[in-house]
Amino acid sequence: MLIAVIGVNHRTAPLDVREKLSFPEYGISAWLKKLQSSPGIEGCAILSTCNRTEIYIAPMELDTGMSSVWSFLSEKSGLDISEIKNYTFCHTLYDAIRHLFRVVSGLDSMILGETQILGQVKRTYELALEAGTTNVVLNTLFQQAITTGKRVRTETGIDQNPVSIPYAAVELAKQNLGSLEGRSVLVVGAGEMSEITAVNLVANGVSSVIVSNRSYDRAVQLAEKFNGTAVKFDQLFDYMAKSDIVISSTAARHYVIKPREVEKVMALRGWKDIMMIDIAVPRDIDPEVGKLPGVTLYDVDSLQNVVDANLAERRKAAVVAEGIIEEELDEFMKWLSTRFVVPTITALKKMAEEIKQRELHRAFNRLGELNEREKKIISSLASSIVNQLLHTPVIKLKQYALTPEGHLYTEILQNLFNLQVEGQRPQAEIPPPEKKQKRTVS
């Protein structure tokens, strides 16, 4: 049984192509069953996220299975197969397994070490199980991939250091304010980064969101997303006094939050700590504000410095993660090789035993009356010859099984001896070479 993956991701294709090749979860069961019914496909699973679509298959016949996937993707997207091939990558066996292990560990993501992909791979496996399109090989592959993803995160902490400005802001807020449970945030302006940061703050326990914007209608729209409160711009500092965190991202060309106003705010707060995050360029908050007692101020550059430092830590963790992946890959390959080798060795020994018994029976008939001792000696001789002939091929096959090309040696042996291996399709017969006609010289 082989393993292959054909996929497209943020590095190989533009968004419009990825959109055409994506599979929404609500209809994926039907697509899975359709793919499994295609020629050469024994099992399949589809990983589809905003940045990637990957088709994992367990084919008996690699070329046939791959052709089925190309046709399947062409039907789904409306694109020609030749065009799809321009945007996709293809891995088989060893490389396909390593690719999935790297994906689930966050090493192939747009954001190195991101956590979300682990849950997405879990969901991919669950959907394939529910659709009934997995088999023993894919089940074991995805189970070990998920285990690998968890192990990488536990042993390396690769996902512990935030590498985006919104996430960095949340982590810094936790460090400065402790728990965010029950805290309040004031969003000044309606910039995209402010909104994303607010989303992450709310996800981490912030309970109250206040939005102030020069366009009050826009403030209302943004506040509704958080079940928050919209306030007019001239009320900004009144509500700042009630907030623990301030996020600012306006389009102003000058400072909108200055030391004089913030000093009054801090006095009203009794100088209780407040955190300010200025994501605007040019800056909204005068840097002098950060010098006031109780005020912690971060701007885009300071947040980016945190992100860069954290990314460097993730890169170090990624080196360790690659080592873990190689260990898990070796374990899986040993298991997979056993599935290739053991049935083939069993079939080879069975064939040899049948030949031995047949030839012994023929020899005994020709020799006439033999006593039991004579029969035993001849049988022992036949067994010894068979065992010695098979010893080296069997040992070598077990050794080759642990290499990336192990399955090829197994298939060659099956073809050479025309073995009928239980649980596998009969090997296609190779036609004899055509005889060359003798040329006559006139």
Features:
about 450 residues; alpha/beta; 3 domains; 15 helices; elongated; Rossmann fold; Beta Polymerase, domain 2; six-stranded parallel β-sheet
Characterization of this structure:
The protein is α/β, with parallel strands linked by helices. Helix 5 packs across helix 7, helix 8 packs across helix 9 (192-203) and helix 13 (300-367) packs antiparallel against helix 14 (372-400). The two termini are 55 Å apart. It folds into three domains: 4-160 and 313-333, Beta Polymerase, domain 2, CATH 3.30.460; 165-293, Rossmann fold (3-Layer(aba) Sandwich), CATH 3.40.50.720; 340-416, no CATH class. Helices cover 55% and strands 12% of the residues. Helix 12 (259-268) links the parallel strand 8 (245-248) and strand 9 (274-278). Residues 426-430 have low confidence and may be disordered. The protein has a six-stranded parallel beta sheet. Strands 2-3-1-4 form a four-stranded antiparallel beta sheet, sandwiched between helices. It is built from 15 helices and ten strands. The chain is elongated and about 120 Å long.
Secondary structure blueprint with pairings:
Elements: E1 4-9, H1 15-20, H2 28-36, E2 41-48, E3 52-59, H3 62-77, H4 81-87, E4 89-92, H5 93-104, H6 116-131, H7 136-156, H8 165-177, E5 184-188, H9 192-203, E6 208-213, H10 216-225, E7 229-232, H11 236-240, E8 245-248, H12 259-268, E9 274-278, E10 295-299, H13 300-367, H14 372-400, H15 406-416
Parallel strand pairs: 5-6, 5-8, 6-7, 8-9, 9-10
Antiparallel strand pairs: 1-3, 1-4, 2-3
Helix pairs in contact: 2-6, 5-7, 5-13, 6-7, 7-13, 8-9, 13-14, 13-15, 14-15
